[in-house]
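Here is the promised in-class demo. Please do not try to memorize the tokens; focus on the logic of going from shape to residues.
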């Protein structure tokens, strides 16, 4: 059974980690944004993972909503769902955060 500590462990293994679902449009929007920014990211598609339902429950508690995807972690820290990522991007704070985490070099 996955809990928030196992989710946090997965989230800390790369600079940008996205917990998603394969059929989630907002998940696709977030991964597209990161790709366009030149960010290398790792995605865990919960609907394709044997422990996905357990991770989804843990993420719902962490994010405070259900469904919790996409749940974006940068530098091992929960940034949040799409609206939080987009708000950071529009405020000019996403790129510096990505640089600080080592996800961008330019």
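The designed amino acids, position by position:
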């Amino acid at each position: 059974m996955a809990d928030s500590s196992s989710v946090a462990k997965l989230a800390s293994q790369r600079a940008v980690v996205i917990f998603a679902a394969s059929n989630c449009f907002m998940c696709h929007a977030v991964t597209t944004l990161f790709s366009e920014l030149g960010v290398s990211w790792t995605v865990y598609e919960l609907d394709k993972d044997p422990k996905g339902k357990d991770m989804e429950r843990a993420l719902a508690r962490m994010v405070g909503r259900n469904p919790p995807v996409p749940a974006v972690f940068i530098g091992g820290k929960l940034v949040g769902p799409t609206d939080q990522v987009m708000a950071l991007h529009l405020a000019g704070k996403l790129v510096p955060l990505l640089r600080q985490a080592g996800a961008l070099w330019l």
